[in-house]
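Today's session is about reading a structure prediction critically. Students often jump straight to the picture, but the first step is always the sequence itself: look for stretches that repeat, for charged clusters, for runs of hydrophobic residues. Only then move on to the predicted structure, which in these notes is written as discrete structure tokens rather than atom positions. Here is the chain we will use throughout the hour.
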Amino acid sequence: MTALKRLQMLTTAYEQLASLGKSRQYRECAQLLQAVIQLMAHFKSYRSIDQIAVLSRNVADLQRELLEQICGDFEEAFAKGEVGSKKGVLGEACKVLEALGDNARARLVTWYCNASLREYRTVFRGTDEVSCFVIVCALYLTNDL
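Below is the predicted structure for this chain, in token form.
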């Protein structure tokens, strides 16, 4: 009985998450995403059941879509110089990235490093100096230095 209740909660949460993601309500998405991930963990051993397998794939697809959407939001905000006006939305989007895990965070940090260092690569293209500079900056920005 508990498993059926959790499955119903998971299905409802997934549908709400999909809706919130489309409307970019990232604060609510972050909280709901954490709940969906926890509920999916409960059903990990039930993935041989077709309905659970489909739901699991749908959740994974939605997570990828959210990641793509958020990365696109960041790219657009930086390209259009709208970071200041979209600061709140982007901050809330970071909470979703945090819920998605380290790989999502790393992807955004890598994009930001590459975007920030693009001009330096053009200026120092093809020299060893730029390679060292880019590596040091990337390590610094990712807090690995």
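Discussion point for the tutorial: Residues 102-145 form one domain.
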